[in-house]
Design a protein that fits this description.
With 313 residues, the protein is α/β, with parallel strands linked by helices. It has twelve helices and eleven strands. Helix 1 packs across helix 6, helix 3 packs parallel to helix 4 and helix 7 packs across helix 12.
Length: 313
């Protein structure tokens, strides 16, 4: 088996690293602060924007899985140097660059999103994410690197905590039978990408040359609204019906005064005010990966959160 370098150890990076270990690969995780060792994973502390040190860490790797991201409020400043460094490392080492992307680059669209849509976002976060992929794709087409991007919708599932819209802001309250709040229209159809499916896609495309040179959507179950998802989670938890309240623009505006995160979310508010639906049929037609059945997603998520909250008191 081969060496894989995973950049970042948030939910996606951790899930990807552990899946690679399960498959028998050697795994080196790069983070700014490093971490304590765990079976099968070597942790290295370095700044990923330092291309010379990153080249040394990635030498001999078959693939680099870039699951790192700057703090949300610093995307426009910090993404360009990070992306440039990662591309330089891919060129120097010859490793396949597997990029964890997202759907921001499309901007607001009518109808389900496919990979054929133009990256037409006009907001700063959408534009910087589009530019990161466009840079890597240009280098791929010049024959200088091998690159592929995997685009999930909003993360959901075990391991997803503060950043998830069905995670820390919802699950603790849901498990107590308390009402939950959400951005936008709680009845708008929305696609949710299950975290283990994200990791499987990142691993699968790394080893298949047919995937390289384009972006792919993570296999994702049919879209369900926040209200429908909360209903399924509450039913599994046995808490009975849980009320779901959409945050009005006025309430969101007031809360944004005190919350930097909510201020930053204004740009992508459209993702929750209207249908936000992923079409992953291209991936499913080409590769073996499929979305985990929804009932299994829900069961695993509730069980993980119940165990997590029990452990923390």
């Amino acid at each position: 088996m081969s060496l894989h370098v995973v950049m970042g150890f948030g939910p996606a990076g951790a899930a990807t690293a552990r899946l690679l270990v399960e498959q028998g690969h050697s795994v080196r995780v790069v983070t700014r602060s490093g971490r304590s060792p765990e079976p099968g994973i070597e942790h290295v502390a370095l700044d990923a924007a330092d291309s010379e040190r990153l080249i040394a860490a990635a030498r001999g790797a078959a693939a680099i899985h870039n699951c790192a991201a700057p703090p949300y409020h610093r995307w426009t400043r910090d993404w360009p140097p990070l992306a440039a460094s990662v591309c330089a490392v891919a060129e120097e080492t010859g490793a396949v660059l597997v990029m964890l992307g997202n759907l921001y680059g499309y901007g607001p669209v009518d109808g389900p999103m496919t990979e054929a849509l133009p990256l037409a976002a006009t907001g700063p976060k959408g534009r910087v994410r589009a530019a990161v992929w466009e840079q890597a794709l240009a280098l791929h087409e010049q024959g200088r690197i091998k690159a592929v991007e995997v685009r999930p919708s909003d993360f959901f599932g075990p391991g997803v905590t503060d950043g998830g819209h069905l995670a820390a802001r919802v699950m603790p309250r849901l498990l107590r039978g308390k009402p939950v709040s959400t951005l936008g229209d709680p009845d708008a159809p929305h696609s949710w990408s299950y975290l283990p499916d994200v990791a499987r896609a990142l691993v699968e495309v790394a080893g298949d040359e047919r995937a390289w040179g384009r972006a792919w959507h993570v296999p994702t179950e049919p879209a369900l609204s926040v209200r429908e998802m909360v209903g399924l989670l509450a039913a599994r938890a046995g808490t009975g019906p849980v009320a779901v309240r959409g945050l009005s623009p006025a309430v969101l505006g007031l809360a944004s005064v005190f919350s930097p995160l909510l201020r930053e979310l204004k740009e992508i508010r459209y993702q929750f005010d209207r249908p936000f639906v992923v079409d992953s049929s291209a991936y499913e037609a080409e590769f073996a990966g499929r979305a985990t059945p929804l009932d299994e997603q829900v069961e695993a998520t509730v069980d993980w959160w119940r165990e997590r909250l029990s452990a923390t008191g």
